[in-house]
Write a structure and sequence with these properties.
Layout lengths: L7 E3 L5 H14 L3 E2 L14 E4 L7 H21 L2 H4 L5 E2 L7 E2 L10 H11 E3 L3 E5 L6 E5 L14 E8 L5 E2 L2 E3 L4 E3 L6 E5 L6 E3 L2 E2 L3 E10 L2 H4 L4
Antiparallel strand pairs: 1-13, 2-3, 3-7, 4-5, 6-16, 7-16, 8-14, 9-13, 9-16, 10-15, 11-12, 11-14
Length: 233
């Protein structure tokens, strides 16, 4: 295995036409509100306009579209980084009448896509999606942060395993997603999907876009809760 920074970008997760339609819908809706961080409203840390899609029937179709796009990228990510799935859990496979077999890294190369998808859905679940606008020469997320946050009493934010962002437009200056420890800036490209780990190792920020507004959709891949992964017998 080679050295890597565990940051992957996949082009064409969404078409330019689909991205443009999302941007237009965001603006026409008039539903966007000031973007929050884990502790609340702090525009000096994050200055954006957001729409959270969770639990909103009028946005359910877009939530499904974005989750499907992110899931496709996640499948590719797990093919390369199988330990993202199997290292935290002693995952086994096996059907009725067969002995359980512990899944190893080497099994992923030959694993059929359908089996990998089933395994992925058994271990992980989608997070709440935010669609966001960072206004040109004003907005951004300049605070260096990671995605794990212990304030939530339900521990949902501690179930976050991977982050993802789909860039809905480009054509502005700067506006990169910047990872401090990897010394890497991800330049937004319309329709591309970024996936990276959520922990402090991948502390990052969103730089201010110059000359044009920046639009993104972003969320997390979470572990299933313990009661789903380890049901009482």
């Amino acid at each position: 295995m080679t050295n890597t920074d565990f940051i992957e970008v996949y082009d064409n997760a969404l078409s330019p036409a689909a991205c443009a339609a999302i941007v237009q819908r965001f603006e026409r809706s008039g539903q966007h509100t000031p973007g929050l961080v884990g502790s609340g409203l702090f525009p000096e840390l994050k200055h954006s306009r957001d729409i959270s899609l969770a639990g909103r029937a009028d946005w359910a179709d877009l939530e499904q579209q974005l989750n499907v796009a992110a899931f496709g990228g996640l499948q590719r990510y797990l093919r390369k980084y199988a330990y993202a799935l199997i290292a935290p859990l002693m995952v086994q496979s096996g059907g009725p009448g067969t002995a359980p077999k512990r899944i190893a890294f080497e099994d992923f190369e030959a694993m059929p896509d359908k089996q990998l998808a089933q395994l992925t859905m058994h271990v992980f679940r989608p997070g709440r999606i935010n669609v966001q606008r960072y206004t040109a020469d004003e907005g951004g997320y300049p605070y260096w942060h990671c995605e794990l946050f212990p304030k939530d009493a339900s521990c949902e934010t501690l179930h976050r395993h991977l982050l993802w962002t789909i860039y809905l437009n480009d054509g502005f200056g700067e506006g990169e997603t910047e990872f401090i420890h990897q010394n890497r800036k991800i330049v937004p490209k319309t329709g591309s999907l970024l996936i990276a780990p959520t922990a402090f190792t991948h502390t990052h920020r969103g730089n201010m876009p110059r000359g044009r507004d920046k639009y993104i959709a972003t969320s997390w891949v979470l572990f299933q809760r313990a009661e789903a992964l380890f049901p009482a017998k």
